Each structure stands twice: as structure tokens, then as C-alpha cells.
Amino acid sequence: MNNWIRGMLGLTAVAALTACGQQQESAKVDLQGLQEVAQGVARGETRLSVQTLSHRLIEGHQDFVLIDIRKPDAFTVGHIKGAENLPLAELMSEAKLAALPKERQLIVYSQGSSEAAAAAALLRLAGRTAVAVTGGFDAWDKQILHPQIPPVATVNEDATTAEKRAIACYFIGGKGAPSEAPVYAPKPAPAYVPPVTTAPPPKRHRGEGC
What are φ and ψ of residue 94, in 5° steps? Predict the structure, then answer.
């Protein structure tokens, strides 16, 4: 079963249990909101690819907040540059939701896709504009930081490969990137060693020697 659909089924169960303990009018509002979120998921409105996210970060867009919902130890090991670490339970607290800017889109990611999909849906139910990064940090690491491209650029390199190389070079070494260098990192230039020269023999003056 698709992880996005599985996440939505879990949200449906939570919403149904919540609605049972509420008045009829409140339940109608919750179910209507859930239906709108489900329709947005079906249309792909709650998903964002790592490629699109990389472009928005490079272009310096300021219309979104990037949120990493993983545990702090995973965030410390590596995260997407510019992300704020807010584990799911903390993110959905009343105080934290109120502190997040309402006029900006919330982009959330987890290690994979399912948890971020559920988080984005919950945020939408709470009245916020939210999307989840497809594939999460795993996809970011494999497709953005370490894409499958030749280790050395060539003169006839195609535009797609050149773009992947340029994007990887932009993010590698940034805050939160893995500490190891990518396989395509240029090798350092060899140290300059001056040539060894032999001093010419001294000139002999007339009359010296035999």
C-alpha cells in the first residue's frame, strides 16, 4: 500500500474517533476538513519533490518554513540546510502552531515519506498550508547530495547531469550536510615542487691548471 494512502487512512481513523466525542456540528466540520485534505492529497497538492525544494532553497525563496520532524539525534547527524527541528509531537502543540507564521507555507520532511505525509495532513486540518517532501531526507541524500553521476565532469556532459552536479556542489559542505566529501569532489592539486637545477662549473681562467 502506498505510504501516502496509509498515512491518510491513519488520519481518518483519528478523525473518526475524535468526532465521536464531539457534538454533531463539530463532527461535520472535522469530516469536511478531512475530506478537503484527502482531495488535496489525491491531486498531489501536499507533495513536494526534493528537486523542487533544492531549487527554492538555491533561489532564496522566503515564502516557506522548512521543518524536520525527525528526532533530534537524527537531525544532528544530518539535515537539509535551513531546516528547523520540530519533532511531530512538538510541532502539533498549540503553542508551536501559534508561533509559526501563518502567511508562509510549511514544508515538512521525515526520514522517508509516510510520517511527513501524516504531519502535512494534520497541519492542513489545523488550517495551515503544508506540504511534505517526497522521500524525505533519504531522497535528499541520494538525489541531491550524492546523485548517480560520473565522478568527473566531461566536456560533452549533458545538461541534466551538469545541473545535478552543480546542485550537489552547492549543498555539499553546507551546514547539516554529511561530513564526508562526495565521490565527485575534485582532487586537490599536487604541491608545487621547484625543479632541481645544477650549478654550472666555475669558469677556468687562462693560465690555471695544465
Answer: -60, -40
